[in-house]
Every structure is written in C-alpha cells, then in structure tokens.
Specification:
With 292 residues, the chain is mostly helical. It has 2 domains: 11-125, Farnesyl Diphosphate Synthase (Orthogonal Bundle); 127-292, Farnesyl Diphosphate Synthase (Orthogonal Bundle), CATH 1.10.600.10. It is built from 15 helices and no strands. The radius of gyration is 19 Å and the shape is globular.
C-alpha cells in the first residue's frame, strides 16, 4: 500500500485510542527520537511510535526494582506476545498498535526478539565491564535491531539502509553509554569495555570507583573513538540510501553526534552532570538534516 492510500484510510475508534495511548508514551519520554519522527508522514510516524513504545515496555521491565525472576518471566511473556502478534492475535495494547505496521512495513519478528534478547542480558545480571565482543553484541541487540525495524518503517528496506542500522545503532548506543555513566552506575551497571579499562590501569568492575578513577576520561575517549567510527560508517552507507526516506535517521545521527561532541568537550570531569544538546541546537539540526 502506498503512502497516500494508506494515509487516507480512516482510523476506527479503537485504532485511534491505541495510537493516542502510544503517542502519549512517546511524548512523555521527551527524547531526541520524538524530534526525528516528526518528519515522517502520520502513518509511518505512528508505526515508529509503536516500535518505540515496545522498546520502552521491555526496557522498563529491566530497569525496575523487581527480582530477576520477575524480569525474566516478564520478558518471556513479551516473547509470547510477539509470537501472538505474528499469529494475528496480540493482547497487549502496544502489540496491538504494532499489528498493522508489522504487516504494512514487513517488520521482522527476529528484530523484536533480538531486542528482548538484549534486555535479557541486562536482566539476568548487572553488566559490568563486558569484553568488547559482548558489548558489541549488546549494542547490536538493543540498538541496531531497533534500526532494522526503523528503516522498514522509514521506507528504505535496502541493504544500504540496513548497514546504516547496524552502524548507527551501535554509535547511538555507545553515545548513550558515555552519557549515562552515572545513571547506570546507580543501577550497578558499567558498560565500559574491560579491555580498555585494563589498558588504562583500571582493574575493578565496581561502577562507582571506576567513575572516580583519574583514567576515566582516557577510557571514555577511546570508547568515543569507536562510536565515531560507527558514525562515519553510517554516513558512508547513507550515501546509497533514499535521502527522503532516511531523513529521520540523518536527524538522529546529527543530534547524537552533537551529544558525543559535547561529551568529549566535557572530558567526563563530572560523570554525575548530564550532558545534553539544547533544544535550539536540536531544532537547527532538524532543519539542517531533515528538510534538505
């Protein structure tokens, strides 16, 4: 179904209620994601809101204070819900909101399940100083898999767009890790890779002492360099994509790259101080990368 035809289909009252529920969840989060998704036609935007709401659902399970057994069971219930989604009878409000997008945009079940796999890595035990291979797998599951779903909704399911998803997803997640060091430490997590920590003389994995170590900025700069490589790979892959379809991805890349630059300027002197991009700069980046 083309954009005009699908956008012209009247929404039933129950559909409208679902969409409104999901939209409120996204807007309440107040993320950079919201800015980028505003560039999409309404039906694609609603589909992305549903994808984002799914990600919030499973992420909230992992970040809750509930016991590990509860988290594993709740994630298992979401695996069953994804199976129900693809069997045509979902029951959760967010899964229902995904029903039409999953068919219309050919969303892959394996990407939803990969996201749950990534959340389960967090749920089973607090991740502390994973090796580089585990960190990369984690980023692929919790971020690149979202990208694979996203490019289908954007309207470019090409190999190049999926290459953007692979690289940009990792870049965004590593930027999140570098931005959220203090918040993650409060949950007992430390995503900085063991090899780089040890290279700079940091042997422990207790998050709070690591964040107070004088070598922390050097570690973060190396992780930032890995993120930068992924950003550049995504830029190269983007050149072979539909510019119009991938505008939201370009905006997300620009906002997160600006965040990474701000983090580098901060030199991680105080990890407790959250670094962010101002609303005027976000708006300028949206205009520059989303409307050209």
């Amino acid at each position: 179904m083309n954009d005009v035809a699908s956008g012209a289909v009247a929404e039933r009252p129950c559909d409208a209620m679902l969409l409104e529920t999901v939209r409120h969840r996204v807007e309440a989060a107040g993320t950079s994601f919201y800015w980028a998704m505003r560039l999409l036609p309404k039906h694609r935007r609603n589909a992305m809101y549903a994808v984002y709401a799914f990600c919030r659902e499973v992420d909230d399970i992992v970040d809750s204070e509930r016991p590990v057994e509860y988290k594993i069971a709740a994630l298992a219930a979401w695996r069953e819900e994804i199976d129900a989604l693809y069997a045509g009878h979902p029951s959760h409000v967010v899964a229902k909101a995904l029903s039409k997008p999953a068919v219309r945009y050919d969303l892959c079940r394996r990407d939803f399940l990969a996201i749950i796999d990534g959340m389960e890595m967090d749920a089973r035990a607090d991740i502390r100083a994973p090796d580089l291979a585990m960190l990369d797998l984690y980023c692929a599951r919790v971020a690149s898999s979202v990208g694979h779903l996203s490019v289908h909704v954007f309207g470019d399911p090409s190999d190049a767009a999926h290459a953007v998803a692979d690289s940009l997803g990792r870049a965004l997640q590593l930027t999140n890790i570098l931005r959220d060091l203090h918040e993650d430490a409060g949950r007992g997590r430390l995503y900085l890779p063991r090899e780089i920590l040890e290279l700079h003389g940091i042997r422990g994995t207790d998050p709070k002492p690591v964040l107070g170590h004088p070598a922390l900025p050097a570690v973060c700069r190396e992780v930032a360099a890995i993120a930068e490589e992924h950003f550049q790979s995504s830029v190269r892959a983007m050149e072979s994509c539909s510019r119009r379809a991938m505008r939201p991805a370009a905006v997300m890349a620009a906002i997160y790259h600006a965040t990474l630059s701000a983090l580098l300027r901060s030199e991680w002197r105080d990890p407790a101080t959250r670094v962010s991009v101002s609303k005027p700069l976000k708006l300028w980046l949206v205009l520059r990368h989303g409307l050209v």
